[in-house]
Amino acid sequence: MTTNRRQFLGLSLLGLAATAVGCGTATGATKTLRYQGWAGQVTPPELAADLGFLQDVKLQWVGNTISGPQDIQSAATGQVDFGGAFNGAVVKLAAANAPITSVISYYGVDKTAWNGFYVADGSPIRSPRDLVGKKVGMNTLGAHSEAMLDIYLQRNGLAKDDIGKVEPVVVPPVNTEQSLRQGQIEVGVLGDILRDKALARGGIRKLFDDYQLLGAFSAGTYVFRKDFVERNPDTVRTFVAGVGKAIEWSKSTPRAAVIERFTKIVSDRKRNEDPDALKYWTSFGVAGPGGLIQDRELQLWIDWLGSRGDVKPGSVKPADLYTNRFNPHANGKG
Q1: What are the angstrom distances between the C-alpha of 47 and each of 231, 244, 276?
Q2: Strands 32-37 and 58-64
Q3: What φ, ψ does residue 53 adopt, rounded to 5°?
């Protein structure tokens, strides 16, 4: 059964309200951070740990996630110590009174790291209005890709009723290309590694991408529970500094050397993953130095969610959602 966007958002907000009421807590000071990874990928914290940038802080992998909203809900409920997601998901979670705070940006959009909305070469879809009544496959609803789709449609003059007839559907990223080629969806969102592999095979064309839409920007942040931060400020400070240093290392190191390091990390952790797709990696896409967070990177999504009625206008402000106080780049010491 396909879950539509309104059903998903309604279920999510019910779950977030429950999270705010009955969330678990981490206990005691800790130097070991539980987290979820992504299959076949190396995250900035994993890179930081491998490079030795986390000092005495250790990472404990507890499994893989399939979406940012799930990852930060796990952090809010205490199942993991930190999680990362698209900033719009962070806004929704905070608006539901979940006790979280963002501490560093970890992914974004730039001229090499972006998500494209693709159709088959023979598709009649050529314009925004052609998307009315069509299925658009993406990794999760209510997150980055759906936001990009809505902004694209709004900016091209589609009325709210017509936008509501465009149907975002959940398709695992590794299956998006196949679903598009088999006609199960009319449009598929492909980013970075999966995008470049699909383009190498040919037979698809881009309708638009998020870099064309909004330019370079950091799009997602790592969050901790506020009580965890209060009990473990030194651990969070080491984490943020180390992850920021790893992000800058990836920017200043030749791409081939970064990919070589990623490949070794994936091989050494022995999770039965295919490292072949890593050769297509280009960038984490983080805009601010060392992952510094900016108000506008959250205000954009506060406005978007407010326009949809998903967040009450004025219920959250960017300054309430994040802190840069643990980031050495905030005072120029990065």
Answers
A1: 25, 11, 18
A2: parallel
A3: -80, -10
What φ, ψ does residue 275 adopt, rounded to 5°? -85, 0
Q: How far is CA 249 from its chain centroid?
A: 20
User: Hey, what amino acid is at 35?
Assistant: Y
Q: Residue 189: phi, psi to the nearest 5?
A: -90, 120
Rounded distance between C-alpha atoms, residue 222 and residue 63, angstroms: 17
Which pLDDT tens digit goes with each residue over 175-230?
999 999 999 999 999 988 789 889 999 999 999 999 999 999 999 999 999 999 99
Contact 166, 153 (CB under 8 A): yes
- Mean pLDDT over the full length of the chain: 90
Triad 194, 289, 47: Cα angle to 5°: 50
DSSP string, 259-295: HHHHHHHHHHHTS---GGGGGG-------SGGG---T
Q: Which domains are assigned to the chain?
A: 5-23+30-110+217-331 (3.40.190.10), 115-214 (3.40.190.10)
Q: Tokens for 334, please give them.
A: 């990065």
- Lookup result for tokens 């902004």: 151
Global confidence as pTM: 0.83
Q: Name which of 157, 162, 154 is nearest 134 in CA terms.
A: 162
Rg of the chain on CA atoms, in Å: 19
Q: How far is CA 291 from the centre of its chain?
A: 14
User: Kind and range of the H or E element at 208?
Assistant: strand 204-209
And the tokens for 121?
């070469």
Residue 272's alpha-carbon distances to 60, 96, 267, 275, in angstroms, are 17, 37, 8, 9
The answer to whether 193 and 128 are in contact (CB under 8 A) is no
Q: How crowded is the C-beta side of 231, counted as CA atoms within 13 Å?
A: 13
Cα separation, 311 vs 60, whole angstroms: 34
Cβ atoms of residues 224 and 106 within 8 Å:
no
